[in-house]
Write a structure and sequence with these properties.
This protein is mainly beta and 245 residues long. The protein has 3 helices and 13 strands; from the N terminus they run E-H-H-E-E-E-E-E-H-E-E-E-E-E-E-E. The two termini are 14 Å apart.
Length: 245
């Protein structure tokens, strides 16, 4: 998986929460067990992916409002590292129109995938339907999306890139993702008793404009929002057989 995000000037302020977050109800959810409904590999390690403590963080964002995130589960066997996390209220979609000449710097794109994907609220789904109808009628229309997501991890001085991931949005709008990091792990990360894990969350802002005949888009602002942290203990026992390579 290629890196999608890069660092820009920070536009948000991050604070560590002491408790009482909107994710509190989700802290007891084992995401490996949850995703294990359809993926055997996740189910096989669910009981070994429990963290003793979580460190919820919150982002006081001028547009999104209060965004909360937490690493809920992680699996490490000395050779393989997988991490699951949640983000509450980290997605937004709203109508937008370019100023004079602004869209001239945009790239020609296909119809945005977000218009046909599983969106996070009834409001967003209605917006997507309205936008598709405008496109079909040849009427100019635009929108902007803002998302906060995890990506690479910093462990023992090494930056780990995702190898593969799986994601889902719960009914209450909480975004959940499991990231399977690169294999083999760097030497400094292998065969450790525990790992001090840091995962930066990134804010991406993407603008889309339909001029009546073509779609144009641009990822204009990308911001490092806040860093999630966790201590991951090495699991005991033999590693399972992995069906996905």
């Amino acid at each position: 998986m290629k890196r999608k995000f890069s660092m820009a000037v920070a536009l948000v302020t991050a604070l560590v929460l002491l408790g009482g977050t909107a994710l509190a109800a989700g802290l007891g959810l084992n995401l490996f067990e949850y995703f294990g409904r359809t993926e055997k590999d996740w189910a096989n390690i669910a009981d070994k992916a429990v963290l003793e403590t979580e460190a919820p963080v919150t982002i006081d964002h001028k547009t999104l409002g209060t965004v909360e995130a937490v690493i809920t589960n992680a699996y490490y066997d000395g050779e393989k590292l997988l991490v699951a996390y949640m983000v509450q209220d980290g997605d937004q979609m709203e109508y937008w129109s370019p100023t004079d000449g602004q869209a001239a710097g945009f790239d020609l794109v296909e119809q945005p995938d977000v218009l046909n994907s599983d969106l996070y609220s009834s409001k967003q789904r209605q917006m997507a339907e309205t936008i598709r109808e405008a496109e079909k009628a040849g009427q100019p229309i635009g929108f902007v999306t803002r998302t906060i997501r995890g990506d690479s991890a910093l462990v023992n001085g090494a930056e780990l890139m995702p190898y593969m991931s799986e994601e889902e949005v719960l009914e209450d709008g909480v975004f959940c993702q499991i990231i399977d990091y690169e294999t083999p792990l760097p030497e400094s990360v292998r065969d450790q008793a525990s790992l001090e894990l840091s995962i930066p969350l990134w804010q991406a802002v993407t603008f889309y404009w339909f001029d009546g005949s073509q779609w144009y888009g641009k990822e204009e602002i990308v911001t490092e929002a806040v860093v999630m942290t966790a201590v991951v203990q090495r699991t005991a026992g033999e590693s399972p057989e992995w069906t996905a390579k």
